[in-house]
Amino acid sequence: xxxxxxxxxxxxxxxxxxxxxxxxxxxxxxxxxxxxxxxxxxxxxxxxxxxxxxxxxxxxxxxxxxxxxxxxxxxxxxxxxxxxxxxxxxxxxxxxxxxxxxxxxxxxxxxxxxxxxxxxxxxxxxxxxxxxxxxxxxxxxxxxxxxxxxxxxxxxxxxxxxxxxxxxxxxxxxxxxxxxxxxxxxxxxxxxxxxxxxxxxxxxxxxxxxxxxxxxxxxxxxxxxxxxxxxxxxxxxxxxxxxxxxxxxxxxxxxxxxxxxxxxxxxxxxxxxxxxxxxxxxxxxxxxxxxxxxxxxxxxxxxxxxxxxxxxxxxxxxxxxxxxxxxxxxxxxxxxxxxxxxxxxxxxxxxxxxxxxxxxxxxxxxxxxxxxxxxxxxxxxxxxxxxxxxxxxxxxxxxxxxxxxxxxxxxxxxxxxxxxxxxxxxxxxxxxxxxxxxxxxxxxxxxxxxxxxxxxxxxxxxxxxxxxxxxxxxxxxxxxxxxxxxxxxxxxxxxxxxxxxxxxxx
Length: 506
Prior knowledge:
By secondary structure, this protein is an alpha+beta fold. The protein has helices at about 10-15, 40-50, 80-90, 90-110, 130-145, 180-195, 305-320, 365-380, 385-390, 395-420, and strands at about 30-35, 55, 75, 120-130, 150-155, 170-180, 195-200, 205-210, 215-220, 225-230, 245-255, 270, 275-285, 290-300, 325-335, 345, 355-360, 435-440, 445-450, 455-460, 470, 475-480, 485-490, 495.
């Protein structure tokens, strides 16, 4: 039996936006961009305005992954991000980070053109309801000031507009919230007006050197190019071993219909408590408003039950917004560099012809555009000073320690999951509807699942670095616990760093 429609993941942005026009694959371009999210389309516009011929190759559809799953906050107040950057990279890098983010915010506002269906001005809040949260708020206020962005600090009597008491809060007016897919639609139209091409269903799988350029390989065919920009969340051509420097994180978001007469909070909110919550309102596309709540982050493939995490989110909303009913839910994935500083620049061992952008730490509405500004400046020989400062940052001992810790956990999962798979035989009956399990056929780990009445038997070995995938019982997908690659129940690749589907078990 299939789950009801409201139990299947679908983002509000996808439900309330129309189709985005795309093009046929060109045989050549000056620059190929892999990924038609915010990074890719922003970079495409900037490069096209430099007079370059640009093609964007998208593995699925425009905005299908992280941009289409965002909470859509275009804010310089970013939870406790400033605290992390200050601790790992220092005050100079922190100031460069905010300079780049401010430039990105200004760029998005110009491109949105004041369209209220795309962008709305809001006050942003970072708030706390616990003692640990209060400490985090104070540290963030100190870091923001050192980064050149002093914020208003308020105590327990803060008027945040939330329907529950807070113990402290930071306030930053004149920030903005977005309808992510409508923004992409505007950018796509402008990009195509400038002569750019967007090709869907074209997953970039490789790039080979040629005379003075590259042959970019994709599932839709090859494209000759001078340069390649990887705007794919995590670099899919990982010549810089980014998988060892990135920590993947997946977060749940849900849209709730408020009870009759219940006012929705007027700002954008993110808690600094150990269990963080993101809150904002958004149009339902039919004249009403929905409450958007995000939280319950997890590393893909390492959570026993994602459905239980979604239940926890529902329980929190029921407590703080009585009578609200969930209408939609979805999840989005992002990555954090162990240095806490986003990367945007030439890919190591890319011959100076391949660029990458990654590590946005869940603040992609600003960092995606900042990365595009940085890379396009580098390509034009006019790199912004703030971009140079970010790239000049070298990992510290604390970064190295975090990298070692993250990769030790990866190694532990690799060994442990293979051991469990080797000693688990599959029952004779197929898995029940909506469930998946790992077993073995001979010496081969097998991933079995039943979705919509169809049972699939796949290789359980991730095509990236050989991790054993794990069943995601909410999104009904196979997720790799090593570096966050995700696959549909039938084995189709959903998200990298893998570039190939799971094979059939036979």
